[in-house]
Amino acid sequence: MRGRMLGQVVPLLLLVLFTRSAWADPPIYELRVYTCEPGKLEALHARFREHTLRLFEKHGMKNIAYWVPAEGEGAATTLIYLLQHASREAAQKSWAAFRADPEWQAVAAQSERDHGKILARPPEATYLAATDYSPPIGPVDPTKTYELRVYVAHPGKLDALNTRFREHTDKLFVRHGMRSVGYWVPLDEPKSKTTLIYVLQHESREAARNSWRAFGADPDWQAARAASEKDGPLLAERPQVTFLRVVDYSPQPVP
């Protein structure tokens, strides 16, 4: 009798645990951009490499990827990185604990004694939700080239833009050798109503040029774009494009 009851209870417990897991809220992401004073980027890298990443993890923030722009003015002054949080509330608690951590306070004070003021202005932080068509988001490959793209849609056109990506664009990227790292929309208004942010992986900068050329000439893309824009363009402005290089302390993908 007792064995039969256990046989009934255990599957029920497993079902409850699975259901609770399935209902769990998805994580959120935080894209942060740091702009340094001239000549201070290496000092910022040292602080992240030796201390900051470990302290982020200590306080519940998951390090996903760290990049610098591959070219242009920002290449010598800018750090771009992506964190994962369990929720918006968790992010706020993690940041509060991180900033109050005596170890972090000592590290920040020492680095500024050694190097002077490192950041030229406060960090730019954007909280993000992954779209329903985004692939699983994880660490990036340091041997590849990455491309950060920001699309701003006309008011009321973000859903149509997401539909085009979901049904056509992402598949065509794969066809032409581009792999998506992730697709996100900001959590906060007004950008949550207009903005799509995504990152692509390329084998090289030359491969990126060839892929985009082939993508633009693809008849399937041309047809999908024409159909989606029969009532007018979806984008309010040209995409913002930044090619990225992975820094040496960015987490490595699991083989």
The average pLDDT score comes to: 93
In N-to-C order, the SSE pattern is HEHEEHHEEHEEHHE
Biggest sheet statistics: 8 strands, antiparallel, barrel
Percent of residues in helices:
40-55%
How widely separated are the two ends? 48 Å
Determine the strand fraction and express it as a percent band.
15-25%
pLDDT < 50 runs, ≥5 residues: 16-22
- Order of adjacent strands in the largest pleated sheet: 1-3-2-8-5-7-6-4
Rounded Rg: 22 Å
Query: What is the tally of beta strands?
Result: 8
Structural class: alpha+beta
Form type: globular
Number of helices: 7
Folded structure, characterized:
The protein is of the alpha+beta class and 255 residues long. 42% of the residues lie in helices and 24% in strands. It is built from 7 helices and 8 strands, in the order αβαββααββαββααβ. The chain has an 8-stranded antiparallel β-barrel with strand order 1-3-2-8-5-7-6-4, surrounded by 4 helices. Helix 5 runs antiparallel to helix 7 (219-228). The radius of gyration is 22 Å and the shape is globular. The N and C termini lie far apart (48 Å). Mean pLDDT is 93; it is low at 16-22.
